[in-house]
Design goal:
- By secondary structure, the protein is α+β, with helices and mostly antiparallel strands.
- It has 2 domains: 126 residues, Efflux pump adaptor protein, beta barrel domain (Elongation Factor Tu (Ef-tu), domain 3, Beta Barrel), CATH 2.40.30.170; 88 residues.
- β9 and β10 form a beta hairpin.
């Protein structure tokens, strides 16, 4: 498609010369600002597809819901472990008991009422209890980290629009398995239609007359109304020697989606 666009615009540029007549405009093509494919970040069953071909979407809108039953159960378990205080309370109680036991044994040993071995056994029990308390704290902290990780994974199970635009194709259905990796079939295709980009090829004789930031008016082909204001964003620095032309890209605001993409137009630089 890009090759066809370049051939169309290059042939039009060859026929244009920088004469007063050229002030009437130059042939151009209105294109989506970008096109992307919506894919699954992991192999997963498609639960719901919330849009159809032609649906207008806003940035952040939910497009696809992947099955997340396993992740939800795992998240509930991790949160339960992170919020539970029972293991920590038991470990605290054991550590306090072992600490008090060792204190008493130490006093008795100083008075020679018990052997050094009895005192050492109490000290060993205290060390074990303190290690168990530290482990209980670590387990709770790790459960909190795991809950955060699973919450992030669960969030990825809902695929959202990265920008405002239109759904151009739907390639899969609920109940199908969406795969990840190279060559995997996308679920949806999305085009950004606000802003739009306008591609125009100009004769080399016009170099220097059009610069980034220059203003222009774009008139879509009938029956679409216009003209619409646009701004030059890119001026190619590499020319096409065969056609004696260079490419220019303009940005065309389209907040209400009134201007469709994929239509021919005329652009006049102001």
């Amino acid at each position: 498609m890009k090759l066809a666009l370049l051939m169309f615009l290059s042939s039009a540029a060859c026929a244009q010369t920088p004469t007063p007549a050229a002030a009437a405009g130059h042939d151009c093509l209105i294109e989506p600002n970008q096109r992307i494919e919506i894919r699954s970040p992991a192999n997963a069953l498609i639960d719901k597809i919330l849009v159809e071909r032609g649906s207008l979407v806003r940035a952040g809108d939910a497009l696809v819901a992947l099955d997340a039953s396993v992740e939800r159960e795992a998240l509930a378990g991790a949160r339960s472990r992170a919020e539970s205080e029972s293991e920590l309370k038991v470990a605290h109680a054991r550590a306090e008991y072992a600490r008090e036991k060792f204190r008493r044994r130490e006093n008795l040993r100083q008075k020679n009422y018990i052997t050094a071995q009895d005192r050492d056994e109490a000290q060993a029990e205290l060390r074990v209890a303190e290690a168990e308390l530290s482990l209980a704290n670590d387990n709770r902290r790790q459960a909190g980290i795991e809950a955060q990780r699973l919450a992030a994974v669960l969030k990825q199970r809902v695929l959202r629009a990265p920008f405002s635009g239109v759904v151009t194709d739907r390639l899969q259905n609920p109940g199908e398995l969406a795969f990840t990796g190279e060559g995997a079939r996308p679920i949806l295709k999305l085009a950004q239609t606000s802003p739009l980009r306008v591609e125009v090829v100009l004769p080399v004789a016009m170099i220097g007359q059009v610069k980034a930031g220059s203003r222009a008016e774009v008139m879509p082909e009938a029956p679409l109304r216009g003209p619409w204001p646009a701004t030059v964003k890119v001026v190619d620095r590499v020319f096409d020697s065969a056609s004696g032309s260079f490419g220019v890209r303009l940005e065309l605001a389209n907040p209400n989606g009134e201007i469709p993409a994929g239509v021919r137009c005329r652009v006049r630089f102001l």
